Amino acid sequence: MVFVLCGGGWAQDFGFGFDEESETAKSGAAFSASGEIYVEAAPYYDDFLENENIDEISAWNTKLNLELTSPYIDVYTSFNFNAGSISELWSGSERLKESNYTPLIINEAFVRAYAGPVNIEAGYRKLTWGRADSNGPLDITNPIDFSDLRNITDIMGNKIARPMVHITWNAGTFSKLEGVFIPNFSGHRFAQSGRWAPSQFTNMMDTTRTGIIDRAYEKFEGMINDPSLPSGLFNTIFSSAETSFLNYFANNPVAYPSTKTIDFFQAGLRYTTTIGSADIGVQYFYGSFFRPSFTLSGVDAFFDDIANNITAIMGGLYSFKPELLAPVIKYNRYHQIGIDYAQVLLTLNVRAELAFHLTEDLKGDDGSVQNPFIGWSLGFDRDLFWGINLNMIGIGTVRLFHDKVNSNPVIDAEAGANMTSTRLSVQLSKKFLRDNLETKATVIWDIENVDFYIIPAIVWINGNLTAEVSTGFFTGSEDGELGQYWRNNYLKLCLTYSF
Fold first, then answer.
1. pLDDT tens digit at each of 499 positions of the chain
2. How many CB atoms lie within 10 A of CB 481?
3. In this structure, are 170 and 224 located in the same domain?
4. 327-330 and 333-345 as β-strands: parallel, antiparallel, unpaired?
């Protein structure tokens, strides 16, 4: 049987009691099937308040896991079947009619072979590295699906499987060496429209417009008040230039780079062992950041061409050349060196990670390349009074050479960002009725942005049947990564049958 809560849970990673991934030869061959069927209603409060159609009810969803095991080779596949929401099925949604639409999604599919202490896996895989409970700096092999934040605590469910070769060598009882090779790349998945589209996407054109105009005033500062030039000339130029590049972008959308080739391969090594009562891990990884950067590498060339043709502009003989702006979206390459640690200290199950990310911008002054930075996580869990469990983790980054970041967003992809980024997650939980009933509350706090995501929930388990009632509230700064979704507060009811 397999049991997965709707909305997921917080995993823990202590010790080296190797599971089925680390087993060597097994006796005989066996086939197993497991999975879950669940229905979910997750309407938004604003839909009720504004009398909107309630269409966020899943008709039914199924997850099926199939595994064939033998002494020297295993085959594992996992499928998700999503039939669409009730309103989509009832109205015959255009999305369901699209030629590339399929309700069947491969969750994972890979083959595992055993050769003594060495295990070799190949296929579509979700891999977890590091010890943080939620997307720590060392867990970097798989991109994340952020297109709907109502399931943000389902860490493994939100990961996107990638094609990879994963090799594990169990070097003794408490040590393990892992290697991974991913032949191409895929970034995080974000909604690009609708209520879950992040402001970085929805505000991109306004941000670009402001950055271009600000750069124009910087470039022509010495000429704007030149008495030899007609009054109001530059206001006319700026207005015409703005119309020109807006029309250009409307007709020539900025394309994301193709990352499906071997040029975007990723690879890494990870070694874990136990020293005394402490679990230690070190790793190296080479790959691309999951979030893209956007700049206009030719913005100065665009305005230099204008400056060189002032006479032609005054005579109405000049055509603006927005193609010189050369918009670029790219996924920066980087090297990561990291270490992690876990130990029980003073009744606390402590976990920590530290990683240095080295990019091509070794001076911090290349706006198209992300600055080098340090990533960290520190967390613990322990049982409190009255059977209450506390799980807390902080995850953050510190940008190096922050003083070299340009303030103009078309010049520097990191313009306007804080030097540090810190997110604190706290979960309190308590079980009742012989652990069949669990109440829990999760709070996610973006410290620099002063915004919050609060998720209280009640989970009831009866054999193979699980029922969950939860709700989510976004509050705090409306400009923050979480606070911007303040209109997306929701109620979620989920019923799951596992088999």
1. 333 334 444 443 333 333 444 444 456 789 999 999 988 888 898 877 766 555 555 567 889 999 999 999 999 999 988 765 555 555 555 554 555 556 778 899 999 999 999 999 999 999 999 998 778 999 999 999 999 999 898 999 999 999 999 999 999 889 999 999 999 999 999 998 889 999 988 888 899 999 999 999 888 888 887 888 888 888 888 899 899 999 998 898 888 889 999 999 999 999 999 999 999 999 999 999 999 999 999 999 999 999 999 889 888 899 999 999 999 899 999 999 999 999 999 999 999 999 999 999 999 999 999 999 999 999 999 999 999 999 999 999 999 999 999 999 999 999 999 999 999 999 999 999 999 999 999 999 999 999 999 999 999 999 999 999 999 999 999 999 999 999 999 999 999 999 9
2. 19
3. no
4. unpaired
Model pTM score: 0.87
Q: What does the chain come to in residues?
A: 499
Instruction: Indicate whether 16 belongs to any domain.
Output: no
| Contact present, 441 and 455 (Cβ < 8 Å) | yes
Going by their DSSP bridges, the two strands 118-125 and 104-115 should be labelled as antiparallel
**Residue 292: phi, psi to the nearest 5?**
-80, 160
Q: Is residue 18 in some structural domain?
A: no
Q: Are 319 and 305 found together in one domain?
A: yes
Task: Verify that 117 and 177 share a domain, yes or no.
Answer: yes
In a domain, residue 14? The reply is no
In degrees, rounded to 5, the angle at the alpha carbon of residue 173 between the alpha carbons of residues 168 and 179 is 15
Full domain range(s) for residue 398: 30-187+259-292+331-498
Give the Cα-Cα-Cα angle 123, 358, 412 (nearest 5 degrees): 105
Whether residue 244 lies inside any domain: the answer is: yes
Are residue 42 and residue 81 in the same domain, yes or no?
yes
Burial degree of 319 (CB within 10 A; 0-12, 13-18, 19+): exposed
From CA 387, how far away is CA 385, in angstroms rounded?
Answer: 5
